[in-house]
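Data deposition worksheet. Section B asks for the primary sequence of the deposited chain exactly as it was used as input, without tags or linkers unless they were present during the calculation. Section C holds the resulting structure in token form. Section D is free text for depositor observations; keep each observation to a single sentence. Incomplete worksheets are returned to the depositor.
Section A, Depositor: J.P.
Section B:
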Amino acid sequence: MTQIPDTAMVLAAGLGTRLRPLTDTVPKPLVTLAGRTLIDHVIDRLAEVGVRRVVVNLHYKAAMIEQHLAARGDVEIRFSPEETLLDTGGGVAQALPLLGDRFYVVNSDVLWLDGKVAALERLARIFVPADHDGVLLLQRTAQAIGYAGSGDFMLDEVGGLRRRGEREVAPHLYAGLQLLTGRLFDGAPAGAFSINLLWDKAIAAGRLIGLAHDGEWFHVGSPAGLARTEQRFAAHGIER
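Section C:
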């Protein structure tokens, strides 16, 4: 039986510099798309699969995000303020007391459309606690909307991951959704650090796997990405 984590973390502390001038007045998670803020889109998807507690890290224009999320009554919202930015790994490490043993971590600047089964549920289905410290959702680089890059990972038929070499183009990129266990953070450094450090250690130990997304995926970290995502949402008739 698939065990869906009941807790998730949404990474929302970034400065959103690539989305300026929109983020001069509002934090990136409160930028609106299809009539709903980016962070609400993400929390909606978490709630749909059964997540009941959402931890949000805060830094830039933190009070605005707190005030906005106070209106949500469908999930418990907890905050993890960062006086100085702690990066992806340090931010999650600080929030571990609020997250429990198994939890999702989702970027606030990605959106996705599911295939037949919700992507978050698919992550939970292949996660084996005895064997894995985490599962990353990957997106096919050639089909990523709002992304311009060389990808991140090679993915084999059983979920094994290999980093892209310096001169390689990888067929998959990290899609901003992951299911983790607190065990991944054993021995993690103090302060600010990238979660990539922990991923690499877990990949080397065979304890981090990947899963290819089977629906559309959108990165809205730039004005161009936001505009393209708006167009795709409109084409799908997605409005709030």
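Section D:
The chain has a mean pLDDT of 91.
The chain is about 25% helix and 25% strand.
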